Amino acid sequence: MTKRGVNRVLAAVAASLLLVNSAIATDGYFLTGYGTKQQGRGGTGVALPGDSLAAATNPAGLTLVGDRLDFGLTLFRPIRSGTIVGNQLPPGYPDVNGTYDASRVKDFFLPELGYSHLFRPNLAVGVALYGNGGLNTSYTTPIPLLGTTRGGVDLEQLFISPALAYKLGAHHSFGIAANIAYQRFAAEGIQNFANAHYSTDPTNVTNNGYSNSYGAGVRIGWIGELSRYLNVGATYQTQTYASKFSRYSGLFAQGGKFDIPANFAGGVAVRIAPKAAVQFDAERILYGQIKAVANSGANQASLGASNGPRLWMARNYRHQDRSGLRCELRAHPAGRLQLLPGSFQRHASVLQPARPCCNSASPARGRNLDAEERKRDQLRLYSCL
Question: Looking at residues 299-325, what average pLDDT do you find?
Answer without folding.
Answer: 68
